[in-house]
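Review form for a predicted model. The reviewer records the input and the model, then writes brief findings.
Reviewer: anonymous (R2)
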Amino acid sequence: MKRILVTAVLLLLAGVAVAQKPAGDRNVLGAPVYYDTLGNVRGSKASSEGKVTLPKHHYFNKLSNDYNSMFLEIDGWFGGDIALGGSFTWLPERWGFYGKGLLGARSNYFAAGPALRLSGYGGGLDWHLYGGVVISSRLGGELGLRMALPKWRGSSFCWESLSIGVAQVGRRTFFTCGMSLGLFAATATAAFLWW
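Model under review:
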């Protein structure tokens, strides 16, 4: 089972590395930028808030302009054990890290590792791939995918995200899921009102 999990992780990481080749409209030095007679960047658009959106190839673009950089989620692991806890991810641009801690019925679990943003400039949803080492009574590994909404009102903290994944610790296999604080509060309120 460990060989299958390690092979799956390596294949996913190789696929992500191949998919991250630079787009044709960007290069290291930056694509040429053209200005109109009023001094505005050609291809830029003014939003209803007066904020100017630069074209995708503009060298001032940063992923942090479109996406959040901090993610806090309530996590649950189900399968070989039932565990509840929380996770924190810091992802300022393309690469970052995550860590989580969970209290289980049989054991406690701690996981940490790198996080990779799969979304590019000006995309809609923010997609992440994360994976790391799990420490418990035995060592293990975790691999997951997160979906988050883009940046809202200039805050770098994300209130709307969902994550799913799989973890293997010793002979125990887990289905992992998480949701951000905003979604958790909305779900808990709806459940309370329904009850």
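Findings: Helices lie at 2-19, 63-66, 181-194.
Further findings: The first strand starts at residue 45 and ends at 46.
Recommendation: see findings above.
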